[in-house]
# Entry
Amino acid sequence: VASSRLLDMESLSDEILNRLLAIFPQADRALIMLKTADSDSLELQGVLARDGKADDENLGVSRTIINQVLGKRQSVLSLDAMHDQRFQLASSIAEMNIRSMMCAPLICQDQAIGVIHVDTRRAETRFGEDDLTLLTAIAGLAAVSMQNALMHQALLDKQRLEQDLRFAAHVQRSFLPQGPPAVEGFEFACHYESAQQVGGDLYDFIPLPDGRLGIVIADVSGK
# Structure
């Protein structure tokens, strides 16, 4: 459904949504929702309307159905969403005049990572069982592509974090003295090694006006 070369999540989502509206001519809208990284809650990844008037604030979807699709990992078809008993509490469906809809889980490596939802507001058009079978297959392919994109983004984030940590470690070490001072009658030796990549400790030798030498050792709590 989408090129495996598309590793940017936003570009990949746009590609999938455009393909969905092309594959299902009766669809007026398509959307993708994904689980957040730190919880099982869903957030909108992308939405596309055929008339270009998709409203992120009023999605017009049934959370009950979406949770059912995720929980049972089974696609759902509604021939008449306006009178479907499963949508009784979804006032936004009535407000948006949604007639027929399909929802399929995005499953990759036995993990449900989100859903794909398509619907129509036209009373003369309906989705059928063949459409649901096709959407389920598309969702399977899309899930693999989206999982690859998520892993690619996680790798980029990790690389950026490691680069930032290396830079922070360099800056932190630049605050340390280049070497011990030369003081007659004394010999100094110092070694610094942080427990983590960026340390919170500091030492320094400070010459004082009266010829004495101040030695500072400090620890910053929590970096």
Remarks:
- The helical segments are 9-23, 63-72, 91-95, 129-174.
